[in-house]
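Field reference: sequence -> structure
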Amino acid sequence: MTNEQLFVHLLHRLRKYSDALVLHVILQDHGDKRQVKTSAVKMALDSLRGQIQRWQVQRSLERLESLGLINVMPQPNYRTLVTVNQEALLAFLNQEPLSGMLPGFRANTFPFLDAVNATPLADFKGSTI
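Structure field:
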């Protein structure tokens, strides 16, 4: 599974964009192997470049913790230690298979996609920062 496929999978499983973003960022920061020291503000502004607000990050952390996918340990200095519960996440991802008809899983093309691929946008690979 690639990085992009994992995000699409998380997005469809969690059914909430902000939750998928937050969990993906924690995983990219090796949260399945170690404690990630962060804060809602730091994640919203630095890791996610303002894509979602601080309060959305905080609510996502709470939702992900209530699902048992992460462990959140608030610290007195406004930082939070977050770890991914790898076993729970793997079980969550390996539930009944998602439909191959969902967006992001289909391999077929369509006219608009062909038009996009004919423009410079087709060369966009995402930020390397």
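Note: The mean pLDDT is 91.
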